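Narrative of activities, Objective 1.

The group set out to show that a structural description can be obtained from nothing but a protein's sequence at a throughput compatible with the screening campaign. Below is one input-output pair from the validation batch, recorded exactly as produced.
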Amino acid sequence: MAKYQTVKTPGIKSLMLSFDFGSNQLKDTSLIKQLKDARIKYITYAYSDYKKEAKFKQDEFNRERFYSLYQQLPAVFKDTTIHWQVINQNEAKDQASAAKLLHGFVLYYRPTPTMAARKKEIADFKKKIKKLLDDVEPKASESGGDYVYGYARDSVTTISGADYIKYVKDTTVTAVLDRNKNWKKMLIHCDLTGSMMPYAAQLFVWHRLNIDKKKAQYFVFFNDGDNTPDAQKKVGKTGGIYHTKTSNFKQLMTVADTCIRNGFGGDAPENDVEAILSGLQKCPDCEDIILIADNWANMRDYRLLSKINKPVKIILCGTYFGINTQYLDLARATGGSIHTIEADITNLMKLREGEKIKIGKYTFLIKNGRFVKV
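Output recorded for this entry:
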């Protein structure tokens, strides 16, 4: 890579712990206090391959820098949920240009949720939905005509990624739903924990503008336990699951709002499988089973995958750093598929033990019946 630049993605913050060119000592370790109780998910180490001397041993020097990080944050080296990436920047042709590049670690994390932050998220969420609808739907007059929740029935239109991009940087949900126009009688499960608010907003606006087409039949929202203390959550019985039919948009938003307000985040895993099983019970006649999931969060109830008896189409949000292998396993186990902002991956169930598949920049291998990144 010529030059590394930090990644900006909804709900994620980054902290840069840098070195001077040619140094193996972190410049400012006081920044680490920002990570208190944070959920670190990805760490990128970037360096320049420019050498002042041909005999310089870059690999050995990199190890010294990793040890410098270890001295400050030993826990990240023991956390198996953190994904690491090493970037070799090859843009520099001399020491001056090399010194301008990033040398160090970028830690991507979610800050510890607070009640004040949660209230702001909810307010921003509602404001974003209103703004999107106001921009793409012409207002109906007070009298005459056939209306859908205050708008003329024939004025309701679809919304494109171009419309969303003004307010939402990652348009994954819109892109996937617009691409897959053949999905019908959908049972949609959506994670409504804090980090998913930008994606949930897309879902609700999309549904609002397609409500007459009756593409979605039933919604299931989940928040991983309704503020239940993490230590008390039981696999398969975590709770915090809310159901509603799709024909009444106002009622749907009321149910979603209740789910959002009753959940506060807690730890990282989510009760995706429990929500899917609950949805299948509520709507056994639904055809296309959709899960809108947080790629950053593992499934609390991953071990219950075998209980799902219908293919699950998984819309994964936040996949810049690659796909969480648990969701690949869910898609393969159920005969379902993975859907990102760029692509629809529908052939996972055909893969056999030892076979590989490349998705985006990353390659995955089936090992002992599960996907692993290679």
